[in-house]
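Margin note: ligand = adenosine-5'-triphosphate.
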Amino acid sequence: MKVTLDTTKRIFSGIQPTGEPHLGNYIGAIRRWVDLQHDYESFFCLVDLHAMTLPWDPKRLRTDTLNMGAMLVACGIDPDRSVLFRQSQVGQHAELAWTLNCVARMGELRRMVQFKEKSRGDTESVGVGLFTYPVLQAADVLLYQAHGVPVGEDQRQHVELMRDLGIRFNKTFGRTFVVPEPLVSSNGARIMALDDPTRKMSKSATRPNSSISLADAPDAIAKKIKSAVTDSGREVTSGEDKPALTNLLTIFSSMQGTPLEELEATYKESGYATFKQALADAVVEHLGPIKKRYEDLIGDPAELERLLDAGALRAYEIAERTMVDVRERVGLGHRP
Ligand code: ATP
Ligand code: MG
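Resulting structure:
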């Protein structure tokens, strides 16, 4: 990838190596990245520093990060076209996060819904990193002067915060950052848990039947879809009063590329069992080639390390350009 000065064509997005990526990550984020990389200068980051905001196992963190890198490549992220890298290998992320911590306000971080959800009300004993999580996320994006941030609906509030921090910094210290825009798709931006359509599908959820992992075996996929909750009634239709079926239809539509209305027309009277079987077949068919490529890639961890090292070197160069300005503007020392 050639770096241009036209940053309106630049996007940044990240994913936490907190476990196996699921259909929500794929439909809401990864799949869109694969398309966007053809039109934008793209930075895709394995945000391992973010994965440390809840208790973690160091060995797992390292392998989960490599595996997540492999999965992104298996899904179609092209490491020659996009900059695919590991956050911890570019020290500027942590460095800028500190400066932005000194710009952000307690009150605005307290309003973050993800913090409330992930701390589950136990705000005294969770790590401070979970509280300042969105500040590190702001640093991730602002470092690269990215205009677009393709994320799922759950991250919209964090993108608002990064905009506020960018604007405040620019006003206080002089124009330094491009103020980014969220790129949230109009459908599939919030895939819900299979066992509870009031909660989003999440990597960190511990409920075994809540999400379909991209690396799940076909029989596991079928089993999970079979056990997915449905709504009252008999017809397969979407609607506000049908959150579970709407979610399953959205997944189906995305896997098969068939409009939701067409699926409703086909399966309306078919009964839940037939509909679920057809959905399971569509998911297995779509994920099959991804799983195969993933398994090939994780067989060679040394090659994955090399690939991520190369990405980090490219990211480092851009990140350092921004940090030279930031250090100068805020009165910090330059690199000796
Ligand atoms: P965790 O539970 O560890 O926070 P996660 O599943 O929320 O994991 P993230 O790594 O936080 O995944 O997010 C990666 C990307 O996936 C983000 O762009 C996020 O908006 C998107 N995303 C996460 N969950 C969903 C979902 N259920 N539906 C659509 N997009 C999602
Ligand atoms: Mg998340």
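The mean pLDDT is 95.
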